């Protein structure tokens, strides 16, 4: 992914991932991978649900079909890494992040579709930003894997945003984006009691881990 594309995503997001979250991720790499796998499955499921629900846009159908295939391929790559590292795939609680964003989704159409697509753009943008920020602190295998995901995650972000603009017709979606920007910032910066790929920083972070990130 070009630097300019990552800069575009960082400008779209309301804040950067806190250094404290990076420290949490380094401390909980098993959970990081398990939840990453879960995120890929959920992303594919979201795309497939959109394909079933909105059948009148060939562009949406094509983009979501491709996205679902890519997300499941990423899922396969994550679980292969987990298997090689002896990490058992176990059930963990769901993050509050996606559910927190969807609380702001309107219930009538086409507003529901517009908001759902904007939420998708934020989730993909945040994933891309976190992959890029976390990669330098990981071992070579995970570093290269996470960097390899930047291009596709960035494209998914742009696809969701483009589809949201088209669903709105001639109406600006800037106001709705701002609604979700405010919500997203709260979810990313607010301390969390459990670590997830899209969580805020944990309430307690060991000082030596903070120093690792800030070095």
Write a structural description.
The chain has 215 residues and is mostly helical. The chain has a single domain, classed as Ferritin, CATH 1.20.1260.10. 71% of the residues lie in helices and 0% in strands. α3 (29-53) runs antiparallel to α4. The relative contact order is 0.19.
The percentage of residues in β strands lies in under 5%
Helix content: over 70%
Corresponding CATH superfamily:
Ferritin, core subunit, four-helix bundle
N→C terminal distance: 26 Å
What's the CATH first level? Mainly Alpha
| Helix count from the secondary structure assignment | 10
Structural class: mainly alpha
CATH architecture: Up-down Bundle
The Rg value, from CA coordinates, equals 17 Å
The unreliable regions are none
Number of domains: 1
How many strands appear in the DSSP assignment? Answer: 0
Average pLDDT number:
93
> What is the string of SSEs from the N terminus onward?
HHHHHHHHHH
- Largest sheet, strands/sense/barrel: none
Give a quick precis of the structure.
This protein is mainly α and about 220 residues long.
Summarize the SSE layout with pairings.
Layout: H1 3-12, H2 19-27, H3 29-53, H4 58-84, H5 96-102, H6 111-134, H7 140-148, H8 150-167, H9 174-189, H10 207-214
Helix pairs in contact: 1-6, 2-10, 3-4, 4-8, 5-9, 6-8, 6-9
Short descriptors:
single chain; 215 residues; mainly alpha; Ferritin; 10 helices; globular
